[in-house]
Write a structure and sequence with these properties.
This protein is α+β, with helices and mostly antiparallel strands and 347 residues long. It has seven helices and five strands.
């Protein structure tokens, strides 16, 4: 390339000297060749090279700019990831603290609930113990009265009857005496009432026949009165329970029937006993006068004691009454926790 340039320069200098001295056709031809060669060497090729270099430079500049931008985006993404990691760690820590607080709160609530249940259980046990003590005292007193009636008054009345019967056969005219025979009849009724009262006070039949049989026997005895007829029905597979439970239920039904006799002025009453699965239900209803204010009546001492006694036996009492439409008492016992067993005589 340098040789060509030198050659061109030499030719150019010679051409200038020749032209200055004397122009000719050969010099003109050489001048044209020089100009053509100069245009070809100096014009097109360097210009193309410069354009290619310029394009390459711009491409590398753009590539560098894109690389810088990409690096900046990478840095931003890295910072954003670090920020997200910190936020995620903070949220995870807060969530763990919240879960821990919730677990602690649930544990405290469960402990509080257990304590409340224990207190309720203790109160129920205390109530049951008081009721059992009262019932034991009542049963002892009932047993004493029953023995006094059966062995004392009953024995005296039986002795009086035997003496009257002896007089009747010794003195034949008394056999036709209506007053004497009427007195003997009244004496028989008195002996029967004393016997029934003694049996009701000390229901030994409860140990032999169970709750259903004892209640049927009691209802039949009370139904001998012409003023009140009591029907007793049993349905379901009646099982035997613990002696205290059977005695308590027997006394509850006995008290309800006594209330009917004293206050209801009823002519008919119904006692229905049903056992289905783990439920023992007892219905006592009558066709008496009823009453209007059920809430006020349930606050009475007698019904309140019944409520407390039934609740202590894991039961529930519902009272329904309307004036002139009689009274219905529905009692339901959950016997799932009751120990089913054959009751030994304890009276």
């Amino acid at each position: 390339m340098l040789r060509i340039l030198v050659f061109v320069c030499c030719i150019a200098s010679c051409s200038r000297q020749s032209l200055s001295a004397q122009p000719s056709d050969s010099m003109l031809r050489m001048r044209k060749a020089y100009e053509a060669l100069n245009d070809s060497l100096v014009g097109n090729v360097p210009r193309n090279n410069v354009q290619q270099l310029e394009i390459q430079y711009q491409s590398e500049k753009k590539a560098h700019y894109l690389a810088v931008k990409k690096w900046q985006l990478t840095q931003k993404d890295l910072l954003l990831q670090q920020k997200n990691i910190r936020i995620g760690a903070f949220l995870s820590g807060g969530l763990l603290l919240l879960v821990a607080a919730l677990l602690i709160w649930q544990k405290l609530q469960h402990r509080h609930h257990l304590q409340q249940q224990q207190l309720q259980t203790m109160e129920i046990e205390k109530t049951v113990q008081v009721l059992e003590a009262m019932m034991q005292g009542e049963e002892k007193e009932r047993t004493r009265l029953s023995k006094d009636l059966h062995d004392g008054i009953g024995g005296l009345l039986s002795a009086v009857k035997m003496h009257f019967c002896a007089l009747k056969y010794e003195r034949t005219y008394l056999q036709q005496d209506k007053g004497f025979n009427h007195a003997l009849g009244i004496l028989d009724e008195a002996i029967g009432e004393v016997r029934k009262t003694a049996h009701n006070l000390m229901p030994e039949i409860l140990a032999r026949m169970g709750l259903a049989g004892a209640l049927e026997f009691f209802c039949n005895n009370v139904s001998h009165s012409p003023q009140l007829e009591i029907s007793c029905y049993t349905s379901g597979n009646m099982q035997r329970f613990k002696g205290n439970f059977e005695l308590s239920v027997y006394r509850i039904v006995q008290e309800l029937i006594n209330n009917i006799i004293k206050h209801a002025h009823a002519t008919e009453a119904l006692v229905q006993i049903t056992q289905h699965d783990q439920l023992l239900s007892i219905t006592v209803e009558d066709n008496g006068v009823g009453f209007e204010n059920v809430a006020k009546s349930t606050n009475g001492m007698g019904l309140k004691n019944l409520h407390t006694r039934i609740k202590s036996l894991n039961g529930h009492l519902t009272l329904t009454a309307k004036p002139g439409c009689g009274t219905t008492v529905y009692i339901e016992f959950n016997i799932a926790i009751m120990q089913l067993m054959k009751m030994e005589p304890s009276f």
